Amino acid sequence: MTDYTADEMMTVAAARALTDGSVCFVGIGLPSTAANLARRTHAPDLVLVYESGTIGSKPATLPLSIGDGVLADSADSLVSVPEIFNYWLQPGRVDVGFLGAAQLDRFGNINTTVIGDDYRDPKVRLPGAGGAPEIAASCREVFMIVRQSPRAFVERVDFVTSLGFGTGKGDRERLGLKGRGPQLVITDLGVLRPDPDTCELTLTQLHPGVDLATAKAKTGWDLRVSPDLVTTERPTDQELAALRDLTA
Amino acid sequence: MATIAPLAQAVSQVVHDGDTVAFEGFTHLIPFAAGHEVIRQGRRDLTLVRMTPDVIYDQLIGAGCARKLVFSWGGNPGVGSLHRFRDAVQNGWPTPLELEEHSHAGMANRYVAAASGLPFAVLRGYMGTDLPKQTANIAPITCPFTGEVLTAVPALRLDSAVIHAQRADRKGNVQLWGITGVQKEAVLAATRSLVTVEEIVDELEPRPGAVVLPSWVVDYVAEVPNGAHPSYAHDYSTRDNDYYQRWDEISKDRESFRTWLEGVA
């Protein structure tokens, strides 16, 4: 069996979560790598949608940006940016929104705008919202892939760029959002899912070789652990070969 | 009818000090050469508009051309942060930069409203986010037919729009294809427009999925081969990903940026 890194385990776990034949709105970076790995392994008919307006892209190489030529060349349909948001995302046609985040909190709210309490005088200015607020609102469910650290996994985000569960159960419904919100957070240590009663992100899965104390230490809130905690299956040789071929 | 002119002349006619101006392009067809010409001409007090301000906006901001940025995602795509943008926001260097921040869906709809001659656009957006607390022109609106509460954003009228396309003909009709982003909307939202093109041809051959902007909605066309570099023009060039990686180093400190800037001038 081949050795692997924590990042490889994370990407493989994220790829496995995508169902063949479903439609996935893909963010650039880790989500794009995972979605393309899924297409090369168990989900050849996964439909990849990128916000640049490419629908059904089948890139032969991993794109660096969301608008690389390989995404356009291999797409089933190429539409304008207003169209991708208005006709394709907004009505709820997309199954899974797949996002990364600079900061994430215990209720799955996402911050990609500023670090620090003062928006006008931030400690760190981040890139901003992009398509994420409406992806997080409109997709049937949201998966996230984020490396776990106390700086990234915080009690409460400094700025809600994209809504998870707000302050807890019921917030999304009160705002009239149709999508179910973040259902899966895949990290380099394990997997978190929202608690069905409170919507608090709860550790349900640890990757092989990761101990619970580490997962707790790398979380900026008092991490709750599912009583049914399971261990992720290690990456198969086939998954690792496909991933390394993709990122080579 | 569009006027076909050299780049420097076209830029000086279209982009003026104090303009609200968009150099649009969604990763593809970004009008870098025109942006560099704006830096050379020393334009000041621009309100820069773009969904995805990337390296060319980092350069314009670092060169001191801008006083405000209207945007939805400011980064170096696939690489990381924009250091000149950060320096302007966090430290006011070389001048302070006012921000007006939206989501992509909001910006796209603002362009559509302006292109449509409407005062605002309606969307399902921004719900539950902190953006409306910081951005004054995001407002709730109630549907008069269903009572549903939605979000309104105002039309994004531009003084000037600059885009890059693959081709124009000698009359100034413009053709672009591949990822076409919001360029059509930006041109139709603007009082003045400039399109730089890879080549000027006798006749535009039809292309599947191409956007054609008729000559009478374009003010200036300038032939600038490779004018989108380090971005790309589909069927003409590929994205120079190494340049985007290198920009991260060049832009990290003010001195290496200044050296780069002297090279442009």
UniProtKB/TrEMBL annotation, chain B:
Under Pfam families, the record lists: CoA_trans
Q: Does the keyword section mention Transferase?
A: yes
Which superkingdom heads the taxonomic lineage of this protein's source? Bacteria
Among Gene3D superfamilies, the record links this protein to:
3.30.30.40, Glutaconate Coenzyme A-transferase
Q: Which GO terms describe its molecular function?
A: CoA-transferase activity
Give the UniProt keywords, A-Z.
Transferase
What SUPFAM superfamilies has UniProt attached to this entry?
Answer: NagB/RpiA/CoA transferase-like (SSF100950)
Which family is this protein grouped under?
Belongs to the 3-oxoacid CoA-transferase subunit B family.
Q: Give the protein's recorded name.
A: CoA transferase subunit A
Species this chain originates from: Umezawaea endophytica
